[in-house]
Structure formats: structure tokens, C-alpha cells
Amino acid sequence: MAAATPSSSWGSGTPDTVVGPVDLADRVDEALAVQALAFGLSQDEIDVRRHIVLRHLDHPQARALGATAADGRLVGFVYGLPNDRTHWWSSVVEPYLRATGSDGWLDDSFVITELHVHPDFQQRGIGRRLITGITDAVDLPRSILSAIDTESPARGLYRALGYQDLARQVLFPSAPKPYAVMGAPLPLRRG
Fold first, then answer.
1. Is pLDDT of 185 > 60?
2. How far apart are CA 124 and CA 128, in angstroms?
3. Which H helix or E strand runs over 36?
4. What's the predicted TM-score (pTM) here?
């Protein structure tokens, strides 16, 4: 994956950030620092997630975009890959989706695995640019993701883009809060 550079297909939207392709494996520690701030992770959680992120990014169809500040810092990122029912995330959410009649969403879907923006850069449209940029580049009919099952700016953004709740109160092992699984047809809705 190439370093982030200005591109008309991604647009910059704000003068202090550029959204574009990023070699997230090379910048995994920066990405996890953003995630830790945005998501409130401990160092132990970061250490576990580092291995998971690198394993995901090793998938041949994994895609990543980053938001880079004017000084070169990574201030946001998104990555994902086509869903595979044999992957851990799918195996956890499948019974919940089956219970709501939504398990078909696990097929032909691009999973937004992680999307995080540094708190100092939130509410600037960066998350929107990241998620629409990554989903615009895939050739699948829909996208799915999981988000903490509470009303939040992130859930509001996902709804504005066309994501709907497919299952709620989804419990992941070791996660302290329940999640919602959301799905949207592609391309995502624009404001």
C-alpha cells in the first residue's frame, strides 16, 4: 500500500489532513495509538490488537486508508476486508444475525474492521471520508461493521451513510460493552 498523498478521488476536505492509501502495517503503532485515544485502550489491549491488526492486513484483499495531518502524523485510519464466515468476528456475530434473519449480510460484504479518528481531529468529516473512500474502492454489494451499542457520533455517522442495525446487544468475548452489527448497501449514501 502506498503512502498517503493528496488525491482528487479522496479529497482533503480539511486543510490540515489528507486522506489516502496508507501502508498501515508499517504504521501500526501510530494507528494503535490513535485507536487507544479514541477507544480508551490499555497497553495490554494495544499489545493484543497489534498482532490482530497485522494478521488482518496480511490478507491479500485487505485495504487501508489513513488520514495524515500536515506534520505527517497519522490522525485517523480505516481498514477492512471481504467478510469470511470462517473468521472469528463472523463466528461471533452470526448467531445474532441469524436470530434477526440478517445472516445473509455475512456473504458478499466488506467488513469495516476498524475506523478511528484521533479525538483532536474528530467532527471534521475525516471518519466520513475514510469510510466512504475505502468502501468506494471495493467491488461488493454491501458493507458490515460492529460498533458499541450506544448512541454516539460514530453510530450517527454510520446511519447517515445508510447503515442500519442488523443485530443489537451483540456480546464479544472480553468486551465490556455490547455491540450492534450494522449493514449498508454500497455505494454508501452521501449527505
1. yes
2. 9
3. helix 28-39
4. 0.90
